[in-house]
Every structure is written in structure tokens, then in C-alpha cells.
Specification:
- By secondary structure, the chain is α/β, with parallel strands linked by helices.
- Helix content is 40%, strand content 19%.
- It is built from 10 helices and 10 strands.
- Helix 7 packs antiparallel against helix 8 and helix 7 runs parallel beside helix 9.
- It is globular.
- It starts with a strand and ends in a 5-residue tail after the last helix.
Length: 295
């Protein structure tokens, strides 16, 4: 399922990569247009590699668009792909094999990140991902464009992507946490999805939304409070976001509280440098992205 908005050229590349998979079974691509005009010419009637074009019939934004696709899906497995990413040719085959071998409900793969002229591989360093792993570390290698999930898990509407998260930020992380709470998630460690980071990414500079969305996640998953490293990672992100939007007092107090609990939290330290105007937030982000990392 590909949720999309106003990125037709990138979307066509994403669709092409999915229909070109070396997986021998049938694949249906559900292209869900969110707050943009559907393009019916993208549809394909090939039963082996069908492409359907849909409109987001739920709340505007990525979570509602994902849910529109999930509810329209007719096969046993549901996979996500962002419209600016693309799957490598053996992604789906390798992932289905891992899912069936482990008899689990969901699987992810590693990624490679393309930013400007650089490509950085980000394999996953473990055979499975537990709930505790995800509380401690977001494991951003487990990107939503790698998600493969048994459709039966979404039979109860409460298990769909959370449409209440502010701005839709972190909806993938929340879903991953809820999946891992049920059972460990299988991993294909190799990078089998290319993720494009660019200035057109919809969450670039949306720092106010990030702060409120992370508050929402902390409230929804109280287990963060019991993990010093995991909690500090979230509040360190908030400190940086607050610094980026000029809320200096809030940022400094958040950073200092974070460092008291976890002195090695780099995001909190970076936020203090931004507040002191030693470096700008955009420079920090660009340098991180060049190494295939985020904040």
C-alpha cells in the first residue's frame, strides 16, 4: 500500500519497484491519494501485478490514508511503501520467507538511505525486534517502507494506524510498538529498501508538531518512563525541536532534565548548542543526514 500526496514522479518509481519484485506470488498495489487528485491512469489490470487507485476516505493525513489502504486490501499480507522510497527487487520474497519461517505476525528489513549524492546502508543488527528493544531505541532501520504485516491483525479497528497522533508524526513507531507488544517482529537484516531523504519530506521543519506528537507517544506508552535511555531519547528529540523553533527556555529546561537522567543523550547536548547559536538546526540535520542518521 502506497499513500501519496503531490509527488507523482516519485510515486511512479515506487510503484515500478513494487511491481518488479521477484516474488512469485500475486501483488496488488493500492495507491491511496491523500488531499490530492487521484490519477486513474496509474491503474493496471494485470491479476498478477494489479494496481488500484483509491482516495483517502478517512481522516486527512498519512494515518488515515494508510488505514484506507488497509481496509481496502484483499490479501493475507499488508505492506507499506512511502511514495518517495523504493523496494529492492528481492525485498518481498525475502521478507515473506522470514515471516513464514518464524510464524510471526510482522517482519521488517534493513534500509539504505539516499541523501543528496550519498547512499548509506543501515542493516538491522538483530534477528528479531522486541517491545523492550523499541522502547529503548526507535531502530529507525525498521522503516515503515519495510513493514510487512498479517492482514488479520487489523480486523479490530482499534488495531489500525492511530489517526489521533498530532500531525500523524510517529504513527509508524506507534504501530511498531503495538505489533511488538503482541509478539517479536521478524527481521531480514540486509538493506532491502532505499529510503530517500530530501527537502520535500513532509516532516522537514515541522518541529512544533514533533514536540506534541512525542508527548502523545509518551502518554500512550507509559513503559517509556521505566526506561531511562528510551525516555531520554524522546525528550532529547523534543529539546532539539524546541530549540529549532526558538522556544529557548522550554528547550533548555527539557535538555537539562534529560541530561540529569541520561548524561550521554546527544540530542539534548545538540539542543544546547543550537540554543547558544553555536550551530543552526538545519546544519545539524544536514550533517546527520549525510551520515544516514536523523535527530
Amino acid at each position: 500500500m502506497i499513500a501519496t500526496r503531490d509527488r507523482l514522479d516519485l510515486l511512479q518509481c515506487a510503484i515500478g519497484a513494487v511491481v518488479s519484485q521477484d516474488y512469485s506470488g500475486p501483488i496488488e498495489v493500492l495507491v491511496v491519494f491523500d488531499r490530492s487528485t487521484p490519477v486513474p491512469t496509474l491503474e493496471r489490470d494485470d491479476p498478477h501485478r494489479r494496481v488500484r487507485v483509491l482516495e483517502n476516505t478517512r481522516s486527512a493525513g498519512l494515518p488515515g490514508a494508510r488505514n484506507s489502504g488497509i481496509l481496502a486490501a484483499e490479501h493475507d499480507l499488508v505492506a507499506f511503501c512511502d511514495d518517495d522510497d523504493h523496494w529492492l527487487a528481492n525485498k518481498l520474497r525475502r521478507q515473506v520467507d522470514a515471516l513464514e519461517l518464524r510464524s510471526v505476525a510482522a517482519a521488517v528489513t534493513g534500509i539504505q538511505i539516499r541523501f543528496e549524492e550519498s547512499v548509506t546502508p543501515r542493516p538491522i543488527d538483530r534477528a528479531s525486534i522486541s517491545f523492550d528493544d523499541l522502547i529503548r531505541d526507535r531502530l529507525t532501520e525498521a522503516h515503515p517502507s519495510t513493514f510487512l504485516i498479517r492482514h488479520e491483525l487489523f480486523e479490530d479497528e482499534s488495531e489500525l494506524v492511530d489517526e489521533e497522533i498530532p500531525g500523524g508524526y510517529g504513527e509508524d513507531y506507534d504501530l511498531l510498538l503495538r505489533l511488538a507488544r503482541r509478539a517479536p517482529i521478524a527481521v531480514v537484516p540486509e538493506p532491502l529498501v532505499e529510503v530517500l531523504w530530501h527537502q520535500g519530506s513532509f516532516f522537514t521543519r515541522r518541529f512544533e508538531t514533533i514536540v506534541t506528537a512525542l508527548d502523545y507517544l509518551l502518554d500512550k506508552h507509559p513503559e517509556f518512563a521505566d526506561d531511562r535511555r528510551g525516555h531520554a531519547r524522546i525528550t532529547g528529540q523534543q529539546a532539539f525541536a524546541l530549540a529549532a523553533i526558538g522556544r529557548r527556555s522550554d528547550s533548555v529546561s527539557t535538555a537539562l532534565a534529560t541530561l540529569r537522567r541520561q548524561p550521554s543523550e546527544k540530542r539534548a547536548l545538540l539542543s544546547l548548542l543550537v540554543n547558544m547559536r553555536v550551530v543552526g538546526p538545519e546544519t545539524v540535520l544536514r550533517l546527520a543526514h549525510r551520515t544516514g542518521r536523523g535527530i
